[in-house]
Automatic annotation (TrEMBL):
Protein name: Type-4 uracil-DNA glycosylase
Cross-referenced CDD domains: UDG-F4_TTUDGA_SPO1dp_like (cd10030)
Reaction catalysed by this enzyme: Hydrolyzes single-stranded DNA or mismatched double-stranded DNA and polynucleotides, releasing free uracil
Uracil-DNA glycosylase-like domain ranges (all copies): 31-190
InterPro entries for this protein: UDG_Type-4/5, Ura-DNA_glyco_family4, Uracil-DNA_glycosylase-like, Uracil-DNA_glycosylase-like_sf
SMART domains in the cross-refs: UDG, UreE_C
Gene3D superfamilies: Uracil-DNA glycosylase-like domain
Keyword list, A-Z: 4Fe-4S, DNA damage, DNA repair, Hydrolase, Iron, Iron-sulfur, Metal-binding
Native source species: Candidatus Nomurabacteria bacterium RIFCSPLOWO2_01_FULL_36_10b
Amino acid sequence: MNKARQLNEIHSKWFKDCVCELQKTATQPVPGVGNPEARIVFIGEAPGKDEDEQGQPFVGRAGKFLNEMLTSIGMKREDVYITNTVKYRPPNNRDPLPEEKSACYHWLADELNCIQPKLIVTLGRHALSNFVPEARISDVHGKVLKKRGHLHLADGNSIVLSTEYFFPLYHPAAAMYNGDLRKVIIEDFKKIPEILKNYAASREV
Ligand code: URA
């Protein structure tokens, strides 16, 4: 089965089976979108108001900023895969709780293990903490981290991922209206093509 069909099946399954409590208040789930063959996956925190309304990740103001940065490195949304840690909007955009993240990790892990990206770009400290809980974003943004990917579940188990390279960025929503952070994220973003060339040239693991 090709990856596009596999991803559709993954989304259909988790539309039914996801046990995240946030579905009680969200309008709809927001699955990842993009190229199933992408070598790079961007992971945010959680859908906001626009995403909750439209059912697609990063379609609001932060998403427009993300699109601009993709354009600046000669990429389009269709070249990459974009998803979130949790698939439902938290009420009033509060931080997702550990158990909400854990409930959505199965969906995220299925997306990642289907696509098997060479590079995972984490957007913001929440997305970073999924994979590298000990790291501080102010120390590691704009640096490639090599680590076997794991998602740690609330019950103490973890899901192993095939991806080994992580590239943490500040969250576009946090950076877009903050002059200093905006410069930092734009500069960090420009490193992506070189990183893909150096660390993620082939699809073989
Ligand atoms: N912020 C996120 O983390 N994800 C979105 O989809 C939109 C804003």
